[in-house]
Design brief:
- The protein has helices at about 1-15, 20-40, 45-60, 70-105, 110-130, 135-145, 150-155, 160-180, 185-195.
- It is mainly alpha-helical and about 200 residues long.
- Helix 5 packs across helix 8.
Length: about 200
């Protein structure tokens, strides 16, 4: 038990220093148990995959704090459970938003105007995606449009999973900034994503 703990601490030390191979070891060591755990919350394989990717992405981006971690398993479960709670809260908000939208428009039959608004927002989203660097655009499309996982994208593009994760974070930040610049709020975005 002590040997395993020492190995974990050595692994965390390497990751905190930016060792991508050590991070991959950590990922593949815990990914299956964490997926099973998250699936119990979400009841959705797609959502579970997103949660695991987001959790490990945040762990990598906050790797400088790994030196202080004593129990890596508990640390990983905490990250994943926080992401699960965020997902459940977001899903609840989306459902309420969509219900409110449907109730508000129940007595209004202006489908043409709604379609025009959605088309305009879609154009802005597509412009934001088009403005990404070629690599970020490719990674974004493989992830969000084709549903590929980070390891799958890394394999396809022959780059490291961490490069994929970092590029995906930067792509999403860039798209969000473009949308904000064009006055698109998250509540509208939620509706667009629902109807796409």
């Amino acid at each position: 038990m002590r040997k395993k703990n020492e190995n974990d601490q050595e692994l965390l030390k390497k990751i905190s220093e930016g060792d991508e191979k050590a991070f991959s070891v950590l990922f593949y060591q815990y990914v299956q148990v964490l997926q099973s755990f998250a699936l119990k919350f979400t009841k959705s394989e797609h959502a579970t995959e997103e949660i695991i990717q987001d959790s490990f992405l945040k762990i990598w981006l906050n790797r400088d704090k790994l030196d202080e971690v004593e129990n890596i398993k508990a640390y990983l479960y905490k990250y994943v459970s926080n992401e699960c709670l965020s997902y459940l809260r977001k899903t609840l908000r989306q459902n309420k938003t969509v219900d409110a939208f449907k109730n508000h428009h129940h007595d209004h039959h202006n489908d043409t105007a709604d379609a025009i608004n959605f088309n305009e927002v879609n154009k802005i989203i597509n412009t934001a995606i088009h403005d990404l660097t070629p690599q970020r655009r490719k990674i974004y499309e493989l992830s969000r449009l084709e549903g590929k996982t980070i390891p799958e994208i890394a394999e396809i593009l022959k780059i490291s999973p961490n490069t994929v994760k970092n590029a995906l974070v930067m792509a999403l930040k860039s798209i969000r900034a473009h949308l904000k610049h064009n006055g698109i709020t998250l509540s509208i975005l939620t509706l667009i994503l629902f109807f796409r």
